[in-house]
Design a protein that fits this description.
The chain is of the alpha/beta class. It contains 14 helices and 13 strands. Helix content is 37%, strand content 12%. An 8-stranded mixed β-sheet has the order 3-2-1-4-5-6-7-8, sandwiched between helices. The chain has a 5-stranded parallel β-sheet with strand order 10-9-11-12-13, covered by helices on one side. Helix 1 packs parallel to helix 7.
């Protein structure tokens, strides 16, 4: 490539690029060093590739280059090992994109104020790549988005310098499938769906991922791969909405929804267990289905199922507030002025990820109603700046005194660190939104309310 020491395998055709991948001389660049990008960096580096990590956040770049991790489930020793190997370097200098052969985009794709796709991060990244893109490079988008984004939104930004996708450079889409904190599945053992803009693009992108994951699933186009990711997350959003609605119904009937689910999942076919909660969290499931809803409108299609599921899931924090209000009233207390401790700020157990966490919304709703709110989370010492939220708070220590001084304790995220048999004796009123205590309530059952 011009102005760099990197060879250009594509100048001799896709076969030469694939050869460079197989002998690990192809260099990989990952843009966005968060919960998706950093595990991907580690995956390629661990498999012998030299990787450049790009991020606009210089604090992250400096931390990584000094061997420090800022993601809870990725230990600093793993980052330090990559740095020591000489196969990884982080940078905020996007002019260095010319030093890599493959560029993988892992930037956020949030929603706007009216649940419309906010593709600003993808567009801005495309503009940046377009400034430095060279012949022969492969560009892959991993960010979750609606079908057509790679072709219609990213491609024009990449082509602004005159190079043409499929002719001068390769382009593909491969949806990220990260599940932060999952001990069973990581980037290393999750099959990769890959769709290329052209046959050569598909062939090279599939070879790249095939060198680091056990299975690559070819898709016939970028659009199929984009739709695949939307389907996966819509499936989860809709089924979680179903059990959330059933939780409300069964609660009114005096039936334990978690016992119902445990009984139903003994059926060896035709049923998959999903579990209710205080709302949806994470960067994917609360957001991605609405990308499809937005994209369907120009085709005259109203995605009623998706929108209904969204209404149910977004209503759950308000349902929890109602249950808290009822429980306090039953004890002669008003929510206004009550001391309420929220246990768990992350959106799921045993991670430090607070993106779209219902816990944060619950804290804000409680404060709006005049409650005196604190929280505890062993993985989140301080609430990070979060899109759409202004609340700032630090985690409080758990002790018998701090728990007994609360008018109410709200279990929002059931981290493994919470030892309920030890904690329950100090809690006067527990609102359990996760079913964590239902099998150990015993003498404390009169103190526990499900929500």
């Amino acid at each position: 490539m011009s102005n760099s020491s990197v060879s250009n395998p594509l100048r001799s055709g896709a076969a030469a690029f694939i050869t460079a991948i197989s002998n690990k001389t192809a260099k990989v660049g990952v843009i966005g060093l968060g919960y998706v990008g950093l595990p991907l960096v580690e995956l390629f580096a661990r498999n012998g590739f030299h990787v450049k990590g790009f991020d606009i956040d210089t604090t992250k770049v400096d931390a990584l280059n000094s061997g420090q991790s800022y993601i809870g489930h990725i230990g600093s020793e793993r980052v330090a090992s990559m740095i020591a190997s000489g196969r990884f370097e982080a940078t905020s200098d996007f002019a260095r994109l010319g030093e890599v052969d493959a560029i993988i985009i892992c930037v956020p794709t949030p929603l706007g104020r009216h649940r419309e796709p906010d593709l600003g991060p993808v567009i801005n990244t495309g503009k940046m790549i377009g400034k430095y893109l060279e012949k022969g490079q492969l560009v892959i988008l991993e960010s979750t988005t609606y079908p057509g984004t790679t072709r219609d939104v990213l491609r024009p930004e990449l082509e602004v310098g005159g190079l043409k996708a499929g002719v001068d450079f390769l382009m593909a889409y491969s949806p990220e499938r990260e599940d932060p904190g999952n001990p069973s599945f990581s980037a290393a053992n999750i099959p990769k769906v890959v769709g290329g803009y052209t046959p050569d693009s598909a062939q090279v992108a599939q070879a790249l991922y095939g060198s680091v994951v056990p299975q690559v699933i070819p898709a016939t186009s970028c659009e199929v791969a984009e739709a695949c990711k939307i389907l996966e997350n819509t499936y989860r959003a809709v089924n979680i909405a179903l059990v959330n609605e059933l939780k409300v119904v069964f609660d009114r009937m005096g039936i334990d929804v978690w016992e119902v689910i445990d009984a139903a999942k003994t059926k060896p076919f035709g049923f998959q267990a999903f579990y209710p909660g205080p709302g949806l969290g994470g960067h994917c499931i609360p957001i991605d289905p609405f990308y499809l809803t937005w994209a369907a409108r120009p085709y005259g299609v109203h995605t009623r199922f998706i929108e209904l599921a969204g209404e149910i899931n977004t209503s759950m924090p308000h349902y929890v507030i109602e249950r808290i209000t009822e429980a306090l009233n039953h004890r002669g207390r008003s929510i206004h002025g009550s001391k309420i401790l929220v246990m768990g700020a992350a959106y799921k157990p045993n991670v430090d990820d607070c993106r779209e966490s219902p816990s944060v919304e619950l804290m804000e709703l409680l404060e709006e109603r005049g409650a005196i709110v604190t929280y505890n989370d062993p993985h989140v010492p301080e609430l990070p700046p979060l899109r759409g939220h202004t609340i700032r708070m630090s985690s409080t220590e758990l002790s018998a005194e701090s728990l007994s001084s609360q008018d109410c304790v709200l279990l929002a995220t059931d981290h493994a660190a919470y030892d309920w048999p030890k904690l329950l004796p100090s809690i006067g009123l527990l609102i359990d939104t996760r079913g964590a205590t239902r099998k150990i309530r015993g003498e404390f059952s009169d103190r526990i309310v499900t929500a």
